Amino acid sequence: IVSALVRHPGVLAMELATVSRMYPGRLRPGIGLGVPYWLRQMGLVPTSSLGAMRECVTSLRRLLAGEELTESGRQFFFENVKLTHPTAETLPLYMGVVGPKMLQLSGEIASGTVLGVTSSLEYVRWARGEIAAGAERAGHMDDHRVACYAIFAVDRDGRKARAAARSQVAFYCGVMGVTGYSDAYGVSDELGAMIAEHGVDGLHDVVPEQWVEDLSISGDPDECVEKIRRYRAAGADAVVLWLPPGEGSEARMRLAAAEILPRVV
Known about the structure:
By secondary structure, this protein is of the alpha/beta class. Helix content is 51%, strand content 15%. It is built from 12 helices and 9 strands.
């Protein structure tokens, strides 16, 4: 996922076209608004988040198709902008978004949606509904794919895997704060109170064990396979196992390759 605001769509189109030509059939670019705190640091907060995302994704799609743009929007300006080397394939443009209006916009204009870590099963189901509402309003019900990232840890001892996932669950719950993720999971009030009392960096020891269970794919290989299947049943077309780097990560990757991926791919 790249930010819609830190690169002009003309520059982003060149980059995506280049990668697409290098690795045909393998690129699935995603566009997100960007981390709000980082955007504020760079002075890039848009007047309309929805408008900026719509302008970026729609202009990007037209540029990748070889169209020349001369127009002025609220966020981006184009004067005779055209790719010299457009893509040789039609790239599926995903949107990495969270809230209901953004999810509906993704259903309206994007090929797919990327859901972030801390997505519960309830959030995946809810997000699917919002995406479908946007697609229906736009008058199309095409094959909109949903990819869901998940904090991942596997060990033959499931307790060790969940302990490894806890720090990441706590970190992302704190960084993301109260959002659509926590609303759909039903813990926004509790999470808000925890952050107010312990701070963003102090959640490791107070995050409930059930949150670790529900907001990560962690456990022994059998448990991880079952959780992946649940995410797929909830509406995730792809489940992206996000393995934090660190001690033991290579062993976890090898265990996943041997005993998880063959059972879910």
